[in-house]
Amino acid sequence: MGQRLYFDNYTAVGDIVVLAICFVIGILVATSYNTKTKTFKLFLNMVLYLGLAALSDMVLHDFYAHITDGNYTPVYVIRVIYHAMLFSLFLIYVVYLVVILNLERREVIPVMSVATGIYGIVIISDIIMTVTGKGFKINDEGAAVYGINVFMIGYIAFVTMIVFLILKYRDRVYQKSVIGLFGTMAISFFILYNQGRHGQASFTVATFLFPVLAIMYLLHSNPYNVETGTVNASAFKDAIRYNLEKKIEFFFISMYLPDFHAEAKELPAELKAEIRRFPSAFFRKSVLFEISNGHLFLMVPKKGNPKCEEGLKKIVEAFNADYEKYRFDYKLVMGKSIEEISRRNEYLSLVRNIMRHMHMNSLHEITDEDVKAFDRSEDILVQLEDIYKKGNLDDERVLVYCQPVLNIKTGKYDTAEALMRLRLPELGMIFPDQFIPLAEDMGFIHALTRIITYKTCEAAQSLLAEGYEVKRISVNVSMSDLRDEDFARELSEIIENSSIPNGKIAIEITESQTESDFNSLKSMIEQLKDTGIRFYLDDFGTGYSNMERIMNLPFDIIKFDRSLVIASQSDKRSEEIVGKLAGMFAELHYSVLYEGIEDEADEKRCINMYASYLQGYKYSKPIPIEELRNFFSKSA
Ligand code: C2E
Ligand code: CA
Ligand code: CA
User: What is the pLDDT of residues 430-444, one digit of tens each?
Assistant: First the structure.
């Protein structure tokens, strides 16, 4: 019994190449940035077992060739080990698939039971077959004879299982990766087939190499961007972890360039090239990371760079010079490694928190205060998320303050602006500059807007019920609110449910910068206009005012920002310009409201500049909404 196979027909070339490639992969891994994720560690294990399999295959044949006394026990033992290495590789491959296919617990258990079952049965039967002589054996003439080929059975079982898994859960991985995995497996079969055709046994291990290479290229390729000379965000987090472990202190400069990859206004190539040269031009061993589009982070180890701070200054100078030349926008944040932030791996959030409050084309050096403010904003964020999750319109943490507005025509206070405050456990009273940009950025503003609208409606309704003359109370709405398509419907629902008469609630919005924002704004206004809601254009004079857009929207009141009130004070000419602007709006039947009236001089000037309404500290600071009773009058 037993057919003769190609055991003798072996040269070590196939295994040597596989072993060499395993070393090559090792070198590549050691010299590139890779996130040491669970899957990456599995991949490294595959490489290890692949190498061990190649090695044991070589040793096996070496023994076989050199045994002269007819005792082939070492060959049998090493052959079992060699098979165990290859099946371990299969098993790791299955575990790898389980992870990347994101199988749920109830799916993992049967898959892993089957895989470990096959693994155990195959290895044990391989041993039994060898011991009992029913499997592979070497006969009296020293020739290898195969009996029952346990290895082939195991091989087919595992391949079937892997193909089944990939096919069944193919929707859970990126489609092209699935094609890549199958493509390389097909090549493995092609080799296996040809090896058989040529009566060869040298390339069995090599057939395991291709799927491993596919995994490396498709799923763990080096995050280096050739075009920009940068390394990506996951590598960044790894680098921070590494530096912390090895106690490597570093300086950094974080650069935000909104046009770095923008389609409409791409940075000039020479500028990109200049940025690419930063790491090597001024420092040793520094790395440039590209965190996201247009956000770069240059990390410079302190050691070996005694003149680091000078280098960073040169970069800032380069940015200034380039800004003069090309007029692209930037924000720069500079700092040193901070142990606490490294431990939490939170440099990106820290920088983002600082940039949120920075003007374009400016530089900021991180101070202890910034770190404190960041920690505080992290605490605020936890609360914001909780407010958002609870979705309680009557949430106690959200307070409505109001600033009464003087109506010039009647000389009375009959409108007001609602301004939000938060009162948070342990943190106390929080003002808008500390939570509005944060809430906008992190997607929680919508929840807050709903709450303040609801609370304003309730409070205004009480005032009306008590007989106060409330003409209108305006609520601030953010641009990020408008990007939500359900926003208009939700808001009108809240207003309608409160049974407040039509038109008592108004909405303040600032000018939109982009075309798409303008379109969202327009669509919201159109949806809400019929419900009697009025619209205020907030902060006029602070942005790039686009008259055409303003005229295209049905605003009722234009709020001139305090900066215009201040400007009009500087000289006659400025006063004339602001006055003319206001006059033009008045002529077009808009009402003009001046914000930030602080003294009598402001008041007088603004009344002369077509003011319909005045608002500012001269009349009142923002007060709890109940206290409007001290300003509004009761109808007779
Ligand atoms: P804003 O809408 O321009 O609000 C006017 C800000 O100017 C208020 O600051 C107010 O306290 C302040 N102010 C009033 N009178 C004077 C004055 O005479 N002189 C000076 N220098 N300032 C004066 P506040 O309450 O800190 O709000 C700041 C910003 O936060 C608001 O600017 C608004 O953009 C935002 N905000 C406030 N509440 C909300 C809200 O409920 N939702 C949204 N989306 N944003 C809000
Ligand atoms: Ca406002
Ligand atoms: Ca304003």
Answer: 999 999 999 999 999
Q: Which atom of ligand 1 is nearest to the CA of 508?
A: 2
| C-beta 453 within 6 A of ligand 1 | no
Is the pLDDT confidence value at 2 over 80?
Answer: no
Number of H helices, E strands in the chain: 22, 19
Of all protein residues, whose CA lies closest to atom 37 belonging to ligand 1?
Answer: 419
232: number of Cβ within 10 Å: 17
Nearest atom, ligand 1, residue 539 CA: 3
pLDDT of residue 229: 78
pLDDT tens for 585-621 read 999 999 999 999 999 999 999 999 999 999 999 999 9
Residue with the larger pLDDT of the pair 462 and 6: 462
Q: Is the CB of 617 under 6 A from ligand 1?
A: yes
Contacts 24+ apart (CB under 8 A), 369-373: 371/338, 371/340, 371/341
Cβ 400 under 6 angstroms from ligand 1: no
Positive/negative CA dihedral, 502, 506, 511, 517: negative
Q: What is the model's pLDDT at position 71?
A: 87
In the predicted structure, residue 101 carries a pLDDT above the cut 50: yes
Closest atom, ligand 1, to C-alpha of 618 = 18
Percentage of residues in the chain having pLDDT higher than 70: 98
Residue 235: its pLDDT value, please?
Answer: 84
Structure token digits, residue 220: 């763990």
Ligand 1 within 6 A of 478 CB?
yes
Instruction: Evaluate if residue 630 carries a pLDDT over 90.
Output: yes
| Strands 295-301 and 250-256, bridge-based pairing | antiparallel
Closest CA to 554 of 489, 595, 612, 509: 509
In the chain, the amino acid numbered 539 is: D
What was the pLDDT predicted at 389? 97
Yes or no: say if 528 and 492 are a contact pair by the CB < 8 Å rule.
yes
Residue to mutate, 357, 419, 542, ligand 1, most ligand atoms under 8 Å from C-beta = 419
Q: How far is CA 117 from the centre of its chain?
A: 40
Q: What does the CA dihedral 612, 618, 621, 622 come to, rounded to 10 degrees?
A: 0
Using a CB cutoff of 5 Å, list residues around ligand 2, an ion. Answer: 476, 508, 538
Residue of the nearest CA to atom 10 in ligand 1? Answer: 622
Single out the residue of 341, 436, 338 nearest to residue 384, CA to CA. 436
Which burial class, exposed, middle or buried, applies to 134 when counting CB atoms under 10 A from its CB (0-12, 13-18, 19+)? middle
Question: Residue 4: what pLDDT?
Answer: 45
- pLDDT at residue 1, as a whole number: 36
Q: Which two tokens stand for residue 496?
A: 């309608």
CB atoms within 10 A of CB 421: 17
Within 8 A by CB and 6+ apart from 159, the residues are 185
Give the span between the Cα atoms of 412 and 634, in whole angstroms.
11
> Which residues, including other chains, have CB under 8 Å from residue 240's CB and lie 6 or more apart?
342, 345, 347
Q: What pLDDT, on a 0 to 100 scale, did the predictor assign at position 3?
A: 44
Residue with tokens 């004070």: 569
- Give the residues across from 401 on adjacent strands: 419, 624
Residue 329 has a pLDDT of 87
